[in-house]
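Anyone able to model this chain together with cytidine-5'-triphosphate?
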Amino acid sequence: MRRVITFGTFDLFHIGHLNIIERAKAKGDYLIVGVSSDQLNYSKKQKYPVCPEDSRSRIISALQVVDEVFFEESLELKSEYIKKYKVDVLVMGDDWKGRFDEFESICEVVYLDRTPSISTTEIIEIIKK
Ligand code: CTP
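re: yes, here you go
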């Protein structure tokens, strides 16, 4: 069984999120999603996501293609998560291209094209206007 992992905040869940999650699952048989915790988002961006972590992780857990969800508590723990969940493939959107190459010694690393013209940031901007 090929085990796949992907990470993200998945705030204000949108079609770009669904596309990458479905395409990540297609890379293997078992999909694990690391949903970044509220605290991790705050430490990266000095603001909390619109939807709290329990809501974001429940939405991801409810997807048919998702087999397991956990909270990503720290960016420094990626290799620990990859080992803990016995991951074969790490999938990320190509906005992260090259930034996870260091994990190629422990698993396959795949970057997928982002879905054009949508992001959580853009949704927030549109609603604000
Ligand atoms: N993603 C994607 N296509 C999009 C938006 C996101 O493939 N249009 C992917 C990202 O590359 C990442 C995952 O979805 O692998 C989670 O991204 P996240 O940062 O949570 O979503 P964004 O919409 O990019 O949020 P933000 O605008 O806050 O960066």
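Residues 8-10, 16-17, 20, 92-93, 95, 114-115, 118-121 surround cytidine-5'-triphosphate (CB under 6 Å).
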